[in-house]
């Protein structure tokens, strides 16, 4: 299992289109992927779950991955949210 805390740099946060792109990227990997914000944990492969977090620009989330490609999924998702 791998975990990483990251700050969202996307101008719109993880709302609407960026959220859909994030979920599509997460679904390319076989590892289980979760996002924690505060006390809430959701499946990062679920658009409804991600939208329910209402993650805005500048907020911190924790990415958690467990599986054969956990390092790669954490790196790619982390790079995605660090785009301006």
Commentary on this structure:
This is HPr family phosphocarrier protein. Belongs to the HPr family. The chain is α+β, with helices and mostly antiparallel strands and 84 residues long. The chain has a single domain (2-81), classed as HPr-like (Histidine-containing Protein, Chain: A, 2-Layer Sandwich). The protein has 3 helices and 4 strands; from the N terminus they run E-H-E-E-H-E-H. It has helices at 16-26, 47-53, 70-81; strands at residues 2-7, 32-37, 40-43, 60-66. A 4-stranded antiparallel sheet has the order 1-4-2-3, covered by helices on one side. It starts with a strand and ends with a helix.
Count of DSSP helices?
Answer: 3
Low-confidence stretches: none
Helix content: 25-40%
CATH architecture: 2-Layer Sandwich
* Element pattern in H and E: EHEEHEH
Q: What's the arrangement of strands in the largest beta sheet?
A: 1-4-2-3
CATH topology: Histidine-containing Protein, Chain: A
First-residue to last-residue Cα separation? 28 Å
What is the subunit organization of this protein? single chain
Describe the biggest sheet?
A: 4 strands, antiparallel
Protein name: HPr family phosphocarrier protein
Organism: Halobacillus campisalis
Domain HPr: 1-84
Family: Belongs to the HPr family.
């Amino acid at each position: 299992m791998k975990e990483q805390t990251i700050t969202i740099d996307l101008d719109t946060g993880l709302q609407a289109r960026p959220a859909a792109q994030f979920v599509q990227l997460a679904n390319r990997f076989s590892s289980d992927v979760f996002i924690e914000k505060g006390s809430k944990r959701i499946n990062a492969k679920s658009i409804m779950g991600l939208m329910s977090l209402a993650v805005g620009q500048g907020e911190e989330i924790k990415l958690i991955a467990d599986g054969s490609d956990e390092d790669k999924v954490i790196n790619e998702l982390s790079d995605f949210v660090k785009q301006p």
